[in-house]
Amino acid sequence: MKLLHGSRRLQPAFHKAQLKSCDYQRSPFEEDKLISRYTLPEMGRIWTEENRFRIMMEIELAVCEALANLGEIPRSALNKIKKKARFNLARIKKIESKIHHDVIAFVSSLSESVGREGRYIHLGLTSSDILDTALAVEMVEAVDILIEDLQNLSRTLKKRATKHKNTIMVGRTHGVHAEPTTFGLKLALWHQETLRNLERLRRVREVIGVGKISGAVGTYAHVNPKVELYVCKKFGLKPAPISTQIIQRDRHAEYLSILALVATSLEKFALEIRNLQRTEILEVEEYFSPTQKGSSAMPHKRNPITCERICGLARLVRSHAVASLENIPLWHERDITHSSVERIIIPDSTILLDYMLQKFENIVRRLVVYPENMKKNLERSKNTIFSQRVLLQLVKKGISREKAYELTQRNAMRAWKEGSEYRELLKKDKEVGKYLTKREIDACFNLNYYLRYVSVIFKRLKLEGK
């Protein structure tokens, strides 16, 4: 992690200049070029020093406006401040190299650009009034991008879920064949989780969208609470109902915890694709372009590298959430143990999640699906996946569930051991034949029975139609 010379501000590890270096196995997709040129730099731009100081300057000017409105500084001074106020990064760094305080260096640079009236800048404020309010603006801007990313993913999942609504595959529990399901239901499940994550981001936007202009310990000793109200309203924030020198870090921890939750959902989805792409299964596959290579040693390889990357990056986002929880306990009204940490974890988490969401949306949109392999895999268990239907039919004939379970299980175990067809073993079992005819046994192996409520689920989820 690079610490800028003479600055306490840590640059985010995944800012736009470093994105390509982290993407060590470059994808051939044309979409990646679009992402690297446009979308990710937009998220990275939020966390640049220039943007941070720009927001801080706008907050300082808004404070001056509020003070002028209250008659606490001359209107003529306000006009000159608004006309002449500028900050200079090189000058800020030069001042900071001597005084070792970034906000004072910033205020000094800003005041120098104005002249005599610069004495009214930062009047009655503490550093965190500006820092925390600016950080809130940045975090709201970042979450708005993430909300848009999730909306895009939601639309793509909905489209593909609808397409594969009736694409039959085997369901697996413990990694073992269970009963028939459809690939559309799997995607519909992801779609619903994505919608929940979308709502979580919208809620946490309100949690983090607060500012404070309340002074050194939050008592408004040298600044009228009306100033805080004016500034927050101007930036689309709510005033913190109460603060110390800082906005309390449980808000930031909740924000990062939600980002970690979204990242973990993506890992869950990506892990399922990785499993379904295994050679022995191969029911779905990440798109593999004609020019792509999967291994330096083995030309046959087609690896789920992007899904693996998402799973790896989710670990990093989760670790940042843990760090954010440790930022909550501080000494008295404030210390700065949280400061260096959050200057890394907040930018990095938002930039990483933006990257992950766009990558996964691209994976889903271009995912290769193999319905024929799904059908073959469905048949690999020699129809033992229909055992519960047989069990229930036997119970309906009046025998105990324990006895019915014994009859169905012993034939299922023979099918496993001998590789015999489960249906035929049932038909040859004389004890089963006492209760079920061959025609009744055949009826137990009807796939449509298992999928007869798929449309009900899709309607419940509002996934039917376009």
Brief synopsis:
The chain is mainly alpha-helical. Strand 1 (168-173) and strand 2 form a beta hairpin. The chain is 63% helix and 5% strand.
List the helices and strands and how they pair.
Blueprint: H1 19-22, H2 30-46, H3 49-69, H4 75-84, H5 89-99, H6 102-114, H7 127-163, E1 168-173, E2 176-182, H8 183-208, E3 210-211, H9 225-234, E4 238-239, H10 250-276, E5 284-285, H11 305-326, H12 337-366, E6 368-369, H13 371-379, H14 387-396, H15 401-418, H16 422-428, H17 430-433, H18 438-443, H19 447-450, H20 454-460
Parallel strand pairs: 3-4
Antiparallel strand pairs: 1-2, 5-6
Going by CATH, the homologous superfamily of the largest domain would be Fumarase/aspartase (Central domain)
Largest sheet: 2 strands, antiparallel
Which residue ranges are poorly predicted, with pLDDT under 50 across at least 5 consecutive positions?
A: 1-40
Which CATH architecture of the largest domain would you pick?
A: Up-down Bundle
Rg computed from alpha carbons, rounded to a whole number of angstroms? 30 Å
Shape: elongated
- Please give the CATH class of the largest domain: Mainly Alpha
Give the strand line-up of the largest sheet.
1-2
Q: In which range does the helix fraction lie?
A: 55-70%
